[in-house]
């Protein structure tokens, strides 16, 4: 008797500013997933937050069409997940959702309530990975090195910009990076070289989130740190890929440099990054430590900044400095995104990576069944 195929729901789109990136990732997964092993169901969410039936979800992926806006064709996770394990339900969900309402713990909480296995981190890991302030607190508690930073609320900044500026300049030195705490794909991030640039950067970040994270630039004025990335895969025993490097087409790896520049202006990825064996070993160990610090599972991409070796004014040698930047619990998943490229270079193909992530989702769900929730 033939083994029953797993029914996998690929969830994409969503209300966040990374809606289009989600569609790109979903297209790549749908093209590569092994349909001999899985029955695949497309589950789209419009930018207005409406869930779509499979036929309209396919239209959402097709850039030349727009799904009909009819309530009769709408879907919910409850109807998609009806009778899990049956031919009509969903056995596991792959939420290819980036940014707000997708990788911040909100959709993960819905899956938990519906008792559906899903790819990626749980509620805590997802929300910690999205909130840069909470993330940094967890990194600090785990003793992981990171650049000095300050967190301010939008209300604090708007109530007294001068006081906020004094606090920032007392704690940090220029250049600075000003970021909304809860957003992905480098949206709303500014590099600030002088006080004159600070207020516009704070206002921009404040338009995207109530919390603003201000980080001290790694290496100081005139230094362009290396941007390194590691892909992590697993649940309780995570593994790290080889280390890759991004050489941004712009001053730093912002949204435009990631997704909009092409040809000669495109950012360059170097896999593996040119590092010593000791540096590579240290970075990979830090990536796993960061993954565990945020209680992540399934997958994550961990980003680092590396200031080059230098000499002080007194001529004293200063070794290269490796600092943890952030963790991304649902990184871009196109075939040319860094996460799958790092695993490809580490010996795991894109198709096998999808299989592994689905297996990990089911593994974690089975482990959860060992927990008693009532007396």
In short:
By secondary structure, the protein is of the alpha+beta class. It has helices at residues 19-32, 54-61, 77-80, 106-114, 123-130, 132-141, 154-159, 161-171, 195-206, 255-259, 277-293, 338-345, 350-368; strands spanning 6-13, 38-45, 92-96, 149-153, 176-180, 190-192, 211-216, 226-234, 239-247, 268-270, 298-307, 310-311, 317-318, 321-328.
Helices and strands in order:
Layout: E1 6-13, H1 19-32, E2 38-45, H2 54-61, H3 77-80, E3 92-96, H4 106-114, H5 123-130, H6 132-141, E4 149-153, H7 154-159, H8 161-171, E5 176-180, E6 190-192, H9 195-206, E7 211-216, E8 226-234, E9 239-247, H10 255-259, E10 268-270, H11 277-293, E11 298-307, E12 310-311, E13 317-318, E14 321-328, H12 338-345, H13 350-368
Parallel strand pairs: 1-2, 1-3
Antiparallel strand pairs: 4-7, 5-6, 5-7, 8-9, 8-11, 9-10, 11-14, 12-13
């Amino acid at each position: 008797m033939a083994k029953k195929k797993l029914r996998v729901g690929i969830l994409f789109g969503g209300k966040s500013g990374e809606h289009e990136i989600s569609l790109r990732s979903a297209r790549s997964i749908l093209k590569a997933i092994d349909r001999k092993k899985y029955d695949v169901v497309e589950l789209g969410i419009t930018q207005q937050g409406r869930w779509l039936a499979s036929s309209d979800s396919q239209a959402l992926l097709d850039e030349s069409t727009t799904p009909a806006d009819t309530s009769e064709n709408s879907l919910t996770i409850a109807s998609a997940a009806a009778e899990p394990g049956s031919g009509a339900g969903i056995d596991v969900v792959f939420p290819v959702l980036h940014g707000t309402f997708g990788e911040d713990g909100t959709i993960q909480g819905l899956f938990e309530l519906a008792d559906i296995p899903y790819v990626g981190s749980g509620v805590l890991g997802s929300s910690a990975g999205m909130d840069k302030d909470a993330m940094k607190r967890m990194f600090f508690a785990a003793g992981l090195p990171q650049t000095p930073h300050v967190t301010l609320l939008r209300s604090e900044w708007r109530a007294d910009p001068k006081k906020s500026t004094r606090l920032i300049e007392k704690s940090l030195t220029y250049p600075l990076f000003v970021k909304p705490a809860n957003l992905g794909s480098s949206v709303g991030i500014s590099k600030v070289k002088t006080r004159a640039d600070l207020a516009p950067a704070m206002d921009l970040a404040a338009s995207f989130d109530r919390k603003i994270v201000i980080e001290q630039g790694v290496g100081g004025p005139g230094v362009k740190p290396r941007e390194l990335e590691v892909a992590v895969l697993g649940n309780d025993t995570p593994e790290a890929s080889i280390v890759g490097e991004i050489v941004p087409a712009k001053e730093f790896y912002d949204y435009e440099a990631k997704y909009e520049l092409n040809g000669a202006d495109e950012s360059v990825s170097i896999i593996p990054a040119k590092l010593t064996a000791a540096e590579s070993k240290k970075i990979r160990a830090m990536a796993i430590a960061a993954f565990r610090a945020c209680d992540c599972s399934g997958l994550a991409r961990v980003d680092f900044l590396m200031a080059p070796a230098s000499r002080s004014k007194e001529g004293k040698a200063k070794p290269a400095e490796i600092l943890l930047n952030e963790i991304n619990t649902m990184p871009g998943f196109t075939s040319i995104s860094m996460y799958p490229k790092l695993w490809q270079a580490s010996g795991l193909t894109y198709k096998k990576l999808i299989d592994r992530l689905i297996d990990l989702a089911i593994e974690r769900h089975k482990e959860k069944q060992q927990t008693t929730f009532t007396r």
